[in-house]
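Thread: Modeling a multi-component assembly for a lab meeting

Hi all, long-time lurker, first post. My supervisor asked me to bring a structural picture of a complex we are working on to next week's group meeting, and I have zero experience with this. I have the sequence lines for every component (442 residues in total). Could someone generate the structure of the whole assembly? Inputs are pasted exactly as I received them:
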Amino acid sequence: MQIVHKTRTQLVAEAIREKILCGEIKAGEPLRQAALAQELNVSRIPVREALMQLEAEGLVNFEAHKGATASEISATQVAETFELRALLEAELLKHSIPNLTKSDFDVAEQHLLKLEKAMAKGDAMVATGELNTEFHNALYSGANRPQTFEIVASLNQNCSRYVRMHIMLAGGLETAPEEHRQILDLAKKGKIKKACEALKQHILAAKDDIQALLTKLEDEQ
Amino acid sequence: MQIVHKTRTQLVAEAIREKILCGEIKAGEPLRQAALAQELNVSRIPVREALMQLEAEGLVNFEAHKGATASEISATQVAETFELRALLEAELLKHSIPNLTKSDFDVAEQHLLKLEKAMAKGDAMVATGELNTEFHNALYSGANRPQTFEIVASLNQNCSRYVRMHIMLAGGLETAPEEHRQILDLAKKGKIKKACEALKQHILAAKDDIQALLTKLEDEQ
DNA sequence: GCTTTGTATTTTGTATACAGTCTACCAGTT
DNA sequence: AACTGGTAGACTGTATACAAAATACAAAGC
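Re: Modeling a multi-component assembly
Sure thing. I ran the full set together rather than chain by chain. Output:
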């Protein structure tokens, strides 16, 4: 284990990111540099730099001379994000499967077991968050496509607050665990096309679920 | 025409971006904050912020305490970038065509005529650069997918220096003009699938060309 | 009363100054 | 000669201070 030196900018970025993703900062809310700086006990410079990073990640909108706001995502934008994920993750899986070894599959299997255990314990938050991402990433580890991978990671992060919200309000996705198992099995058998198709459906099903919820919330206002 | 106030950070970002894209700063070369600040007659703060933006765009690598370098792109990475473009641009076109009106097609036609004229004049640099992007974007104007659009724009920018290099060394892509015409015609006729397929081939053909050149250059060293 | 103009206040943008980290080089040791 | 430890210089990271822009609000004109 290597110790890593983190700059204040990075620490601040993590802090603000978490605030946005867990809903402590609501969408549209302005982010005052001075206030954040004081709260986190740093100067405004690292706060500014962190905000710019978060803008690149899509979590924040930054307008010159007007400041930053937590970016709002509409139901239609969520749809686009998930459709992009479906497209890109299927592409990753397609290129990954031929390069996956037995031990790679074992790793994926481990992640899936952890995920199923968490789900059985009713711990949907963790299961749909980190564990879910880890399982997916394990499947893509053979793709050797760093750019695609990074875009997918960014998309995931971007919509993760909506996924979390969905879990809170609707208890999470019921069918996800079986779908995961199915995708892994197809991948193991080398059925690339079917595995990719199942993955796409898996992601698009989540989209429909979350979009329905968001549309309902928007209508209520 | 509205006058737009640009911050120094934005101006610096544009300046450095151009330096990288036109080859004045070579890949791998370190970008010293103090030197850039002095050259552009600003302090180091806007330089830092510009470099971070460029990192988000993928043009620069930024390592804590070590500084920024113009990012190197290998032949395999160029391949990935173009394949991503093929995938995402086809997706944009697919969603755009049903929404394109007569006047949208007219705009695309205008761009294409300009492009062909520039090409006939032997002005491949402009034709393969801005004009090419404008034509492509016109085709995607009905897609209504801002995120996808932005990713594509970023990918384009990222590899544009290699496209420019290719033009310098090999005179540009010979078949591109006819391919453009063909894509536009298919789109006008509403033949979505065929148009998307042609677009993919168009982009992948450029990939093969540039990749061949890059591999040759890498071998020579 | 409504619009316009001027001013105070808040907030962001940038310069300067200082602190922390990395790198390269050199002396001393084995 | 190879290795360790230490030191100086270069460069980046961050705090502070000041400048510029945006905003809110009050006063003047119609």
